[in-house]
Amino acid sequence: MRRVLVTGGTGFIGTELVRELSGMGLQPRVLVRRPHRAALLSNLDVEPVQGDLASPASLERALDGVDTVFHLGARASFESYRRLAPTVVDGTTTLARHAAAAGVRRFVFSSSLFVYGDQETPIDGATPTGPAIDYGVAKLEAESALNDIASEAQMDLAVVRLPHVYGPHSILFHQVRRGLALFPGAMTNECGQLHVADAARLLAAIGEQGWIGRSAVADGDRISWREFFETLRTFYPHLRLVTIPRWLGVAGAAALEPVLSSRARPTLYTKDTVRGFNLNVPVAPGLVWRDLDLEPRYPSVGTGIPAVLDGYLQYRWRHPMMDLRSA
Ligand SMILES: NC(=O)c1ccc[n+]([C@@H]2O[C@H](COP(=O)([O-])OP(=O)(O)OC[C@H]3O[C@@H](n4cnc5c(N)ncnc54)[C@H](OP(=O)(O)O)[C@@H]3O)[C@@H](O)[C@H]2O)c1
Predict the structure, then answer these.
(1) 166 is catalytic
(2) Selected catalytic residue, list 116, 135, 166, 236
(3) Domain range 4-165+194-219+283-297, its CATH number among 3.10.580.10, 1.10.3720.10, 3.30.365.10, 3.40.50.720
(4) Is the distance from CB of 38 to CB of 32 less than 8 angstroms?
(5) How far is the CA of 87 from the centre of ligand 1 (A)?
(6) How far, in Å, CA of 107 to CA of 230, rounded?
(7) Is 165 in the pocket of ligand 1 (CB under 6 A)?
(8) Does the C-beta of 231 come closer than 6 Å to ligand 1?
(9) Is 171 close to ligand 1, i.e. is its CB under 6 Å away?
(10) What tens digit of pLDDT does each residue of 231-257 get?
């Protein structure tokens, strides 16, 4: 990789990826949609370029001289297809077409585990897709468009179906900071998990090693949402967890969604958010990691959650002068 472009570099996973690429000595170019958010990257050696997935001219400028694209930019929410398609499907397609025309050699796309529906056994290379929510439908459509464009242009394509990515700046940990988390459902379903630092390491390594393919990824552990929150509360007992029945979540979202969807900004309160958090989507261990000869730094939430809390809430750190306990 010589010159890389990151879309979504001002987002939750993107900032971590940009930090990783920057640490590798690359000076990533970052597509910045809202100028004030470029300040998030001001401590890093990056090249911000103003642009939007809806503006082909800005993409053309951003792609000039680029050999590898990391495409994370999207309306990353569980809203309706109509709300998601302009960025997830159309934006991805436009970006890929311009990337191919600009001679980009490698395209890394952050897709989602939600291209799969409910699964009884861990997802692996043989698991058929079949999304149960619109977000998964849109991601799968984007994957298919990318596939066509990349094979025609002979551009290397890596499609990374990310699981639930957690970290200090994830939405979930915003709730943790407020001391109250809400979960709509029984929490017995499993969902693949990945610490954001590992998501960034994995994406960067995919770009660096030139991994080509399409796969789900996760941290290697199998865990239900109940176990996830139990781990969280073990390390951070201040957290209050409120669970509501799934039907109530769906009913509440059905009432809120039409109101909140009238606003321009994305909303969390949708029926598909409730459905998505109730899908059973475990991931087989080692996928992609093995090919890259890498291991997750946080192989389970048992190691990843304390790392997040350490950095975020400083829950264990006490300055020596403030630590009055005797040896
Ligand atoms: N977080 C997860 O658990 C997870 C799991 C699976 C897949 N993914 C995928 O991974 C990617 C990153 O997710 P995330 O959680 O980091 O999302 P995020 O924090 O919501 O960030 C989204 C990024 O996309 C940018 N963006 C939105 N609309 C755009 C447009 N029209 N043109 C250019 N940029 C635009 C945003 O710019 P602003 O900063 O200006 O808003 C932001 O930088 C997404 O594609 C998401 O679908 C995430």
Answers:
(1) no
(2) 135
(3) 3.40.50.720
(4) yes
(5) 10
(6) 38
(7) yes
(8) no
(9) no
(10) 999 998 889 999 999 999 999 888 887
